[in-house]
Design a protein that fits this description.
- Helix content is about 35%, strand content about 20%.
- The protein is α/β, with parallel strands linked by helices.
- Helix 12 links the parallel strand 15 and strand 16 (about 415).
- The longest helix is centred in the middle third of the chain and has 29 residues, at about 165-190.
- It is elongated.
- About 50% of the residues are buried.
- Bound molecules: ligand BES and zinc ion (ZN) (2 copies).
Length: about 500
């Protein structure tokens, strides 16, 4: 779908539908809603006066203006109370509006940004509206062969604005939203594909495509190269599968040579059966999403390059299946990691931390300014924080604060859990340097404490996205299924960080 901007008055053009908004409890109409109401002989005011529309958040009403304006329909959307309003609700309102339009089987619509939005700049407002529309319309359909022709795809959304000075603000903001939404779509697609269509080899192939389109450097380490380097915890997990493992490394150089990069590491388990410590079969199909961290990193690299952010970023995605083949890892096996530390594998289902261990060590060769890993790492994180919240643990307060700030802006909430050092004894092994699981207690924290042993002295932060990666229930602008969580958060974080370093070295 494309978003275009047109100069003029929304009441003057002929659209299939125009979307306009109202706050709850606002007796007086404002902005575009007031203009449309006047032209339609007070039709919107009547809805309010009769009590048929209150402006409650996500409430909607359709009006047929007849010949009073050239457009065929007016879709009225409720924004909730003005004092509760924020960009997250704005994304939701316009996502719901676009979804309603699609349900009406219309393929074009228009909107005006001429409505009050306290504390939200026009730039932020334009970006949130465009993101809400694009993200809310996502569908994953490549495997549907029946009734495809019945599907409606919205072709165009027109933002109407009369003031050229405002158009100059809206237009670039919409472009940014398009680049970011495109990246979120990529992450969602990578995760939505089943594991037979998204093997480590295919994931690496997709990363190559992204790299060539966006102008990123790419290197993919194969099994032989990993053997030579000694990435034995990653190779250990891969042993149970016939699919060859891949370690994907993407590099974006948007800043000077001497600028230390940020390293982003994403767990890329394209299917997690648990291995010999096999999972129960109920919901096992959801484990196609165990590469959601890797998908978020690939997508972030794409957006960062397309936005030309002045920053250096390395993306590392260790990718393999976790299967119980004849050569698979067995409980009790001991592996020598790339870092030299030995790991006793107590549970082969705690495979994410094994592949991340070697990826974290590999990141050190770039002498990164910070390392952030993102992974669908523990079921325990879902128990602790539920489906919507990212668990965060790390060694660097300023890094954690920056991620928290970014997450508040993008509506991808993070919550910090303590990296409680005393729990390190829970992962002490009798026969090796460390074991890969602790007790059931504090499973998310012991997983992070395990990773910390491989982060070295670099400022490091770990994000556990086991909950929000794959949604069982849709959210206002995130359809059910793969959410693409982390992409907007990382892009916001990198944008903010590049702005700060730019200020330091003008
Ligand atoms: N990929 C899973 C974690 C997971 C569970 C993600 C549910 C999304 C939804 C991970 O590899 C795993 O199996 N973790 C184990 C760790 C345990 C063996 C210590 C878990 O959480 O049960
Ligand atoms: Zn597992
Ligand atoms: Zn896993």
């Amino acid at each position: 779908m494309k978003i275009t901007i047109k100069k003029g008055n929304i009441a003057d053009f002929n659209f299939e539908a125009v979307v306009t908004v109202l706050f709850e409890g606002n007796k007086k109409l404002e902005g575009a809603s007031l203009i449309l109401d006047k032209r339609c002989g007070g039709a919107i005011n009547d809805l309010l006066a009769y009590g048929d529309f209150e402006g409650k958040l996500f409430q909607s009403a359709l009006l047929y203006p007849k010949e009073s304006i050239p457009s065929k329909r007016i879709l009225l959307m409720g924004m909730g109370k003005k004092e509760d309003f924020d960009t997250e609700k704005l994304r939701g309102v316009f996502s719901k509006a676009a979804q309603k339009i699609r349900e009406l089987r219309i393929d074009t619509f228009a909107l005006s940004l001429d409505f009050d939005s306290p504390d939200i700049s026009l730039e932020e407002k334009s970006k949130a509206v465009a993101e809400g529309i694009l993200l809310g319309l996502y569908r994953f359909t490549p495997f549907k062969t029946i009734d495809k022709e019945k599907e409606v795809t919205i072709k165009e959304c027109t933002i109407v604005e009369n003031d050229p000075a405002l158009i100059d603000i809206i237009s670039p903001a919409v472009q940014v939203a398009e680049i970011i939404s495109d990246a979120v779509y990529l992450a969602r697609d990578l995760v939505s594909n089943p594991s037979n269509a998204m093997t480590p080899t295919i994931l690496a192939e997709k990363a190559r495509e992204v790299a060539s389109q966006a102008g990123l450097e790419i290197e993919v380490l194969d099994r032989d190269k990993m053997k030579e380097l000694g990435m034995n915890t990653l190779l250990g997990v891969a042993r149970g599968s016939k699919e060859p493992p891949q370690c994907i490394i993407l590099q974006y150089n948007g800043a000077g040579k001497n600028d230390k990069p940020v390293a982003l590491i994403g767990k890329g388990i394209t299917f997690d059966s648990g291995g010999i410590s096999i999972k129960p079969s109920a919901k096992m199909e959801e484990m196609k999403s165990d590469m959601a961290g890797g998908a978020a990193v690939i997508a972030t690299m794409k957006a960062t390059a397309n936005l030309k952010l002045p920053i250096n970023v390395i993306g590392i995605i260790p990718a393999t299946e976790n299967l119980p083949g004849g050569n698979a890892l067995k409980p009790g096996d001991i592996l020598k990691s790339l870092s030299g530390q030995t790991v006793e594998v107590i549970n082969t289902d705690a495979e994410g931390r094994l592949i991340l261990a070697d990826a974290l060590t590999y990141a050190h060769r770039y002498e990164p300014a910070a390392i952030i890993d993102i992974a669908t790492l523990t079921g325990a994180c879902i128990i602790a924080l539920g489906d919507n919240i990212i668990g965060m643990m790390g060694t660097d307060a300023s890094l954690k604060n920056s991620l928290k700030d970014a997450s508040e802006k993008t509506g991808e909430p993070v919550w910090e859990l303590p990296l409680w050092h005393e729990y390190e004894e829970l992962i002490q092994s009798d026969t090796a340097d460390v074991k890969n699981v602790g007790d059931r207690a504090a499973g998310t924290i012991t997983a992070a404490l395990f990773l910390k042993k491989f982060a070295g002295d670099y400022p490091w932060c770990h994000l556990d996205i086991a909950g929000p990666a794959l949604l069982a229930k849709e959210r206002p602008y995130i359809p059910k299924g793969a959410s693409g969580v982390g992409v907007r958060l990382f892009v916001q974080f990198l944008k903010e960080r590049s702005r700060k370093t730019d200020e330091k070295n003008p």
